[in-house]
Amino acid sequence: MGENLDLRKCGNCGYLCTTNGWFKTFEITFGLSIFLCLVIWQHSCGTSYTHFLLLTSFCFTTMTSLFLTSFIISSTSQAFTSTIVFINFNLLGFVFYFSGSLTALIRGNAYETQRGLFLAAGLLGLTAGTLHLVDALLAIRLKLRKDNPLFVN
């Protein structure tokens, strides 16, 4: 019972200890927080402009969870994180979260009773979008590195 669990030794759980693993974990956490904030709050799904942020958080949280699960199960996670698909996914996540968050922040001021909800969802969305942008920039840096074995001239 006194043994320490080393995540790097079980399957590919060592991916969770990498920078990409931390980013994926935070992206899932923020996406789930946005989704729960907009779904649980009374009548928040009734406003049309929150539907975009709600759908964005649901879709990107689901896809990021699938990516993270695949990276843990598979041993080729580092090869996928430098592909164009992964980079485009994160750039699209940044654009969608940024758009939905700005809409929630700007339009949310019109509602006195739910102003806190829209402020929280908007700020969480901006944070999630920033995480996706930084993750994309790290993937681009990995792709362009000369010592990357996947680099093709």
UniProtKB/TrEMBL annotation:
<feature type="transmembrane region" description="Helical">
    <location>
        <begin position="118"/>
        <end position="140"/>
    </location>
</feature>
<feature type="transmembrane region" description="Helical">
    <location>
        <begin position="21"/>
        <end position="41"/>
    </location>
</feature>
<keyword id="KW-0812">Transmembrane</keyword>
<protein>
    <recommendedName>
        <fullName>MARVEL domain-containing protein</fullName>
    </recommendedName>
</protein>
<keyword id="KW-0472">Membrane</keyword>
<feature type="transmembrane region" description="Helical">
    <location>
        <begin position="53"/>
        <end position="73"/>
    </location>
</feature>
<feature type="transmembrane region" description="Helical">
    <location>
        <begin position="85"/>
        <end position="106"/>
    </location>
</feature>
<feature type="domain" description="MARVEL">
    <location>
        <begin position="15"/>
        <end position="144"/>
    </location>
</feature>
<dbReference type="GO" id="GO:0016020">
    <property type="term" value="C:membrane"/>
</dbReference>
<keyword id="KW-1133">Transmembrane helix</keyword>
<dbReference type="InterPro" id="IPR008253">
    <property type="entry name" value="Marvel"/>
</dbReference>
